[in-house]
Design goal:
Length: 174
Amino acid sequence: MKILINPGHSIEGLDHGAIGKSGLWEAKVNANIAQLVKCYLCRKGIDSVIFQQKKSLTEVIKYENANNFDLAVSIHCNAATSTQANGVETLYYPSSQKSKKLAGYIQEELVASTKLRDRGIKKRSDLGFLEQTKTIAVLVECAFISNAREEQMLKNDEDLFAKAIAEGIIKYIG
């Protein structure tokens, strides 16, 4: 089993993702959570690779498709204009039942671990990462970086999110 972990957005390039009110960068949160997920999977003997884009998402999709991964998980923080928006959600491509199942396991673990609002698993056909990768793929929206309380969780409790994502992957693998 070989898993691609994609911390969404870029630390080096122009696309840093959303930025919280305190100045927290989504790309940095995603990278930190991804590293922790990799550590949890490694402890269970599961091979995983972290690949974060430098310039564009196309790099990630090409890398995934060229390396025959069994699963691909992209880690993100959600954001909204309303500072009241909250919760966790996991996205999958509508025609992939295996991706839906993986999304369900990750979502279940995230809600149980973080105690944040369950926004559910959602079908998304408009996201390149889900549509263009050749493998089972999900995109995890850990919490809202635009919500002050959740931004603090993303900053201080990265391990909570990472362990939940890893546990969801482990459950899926069975």
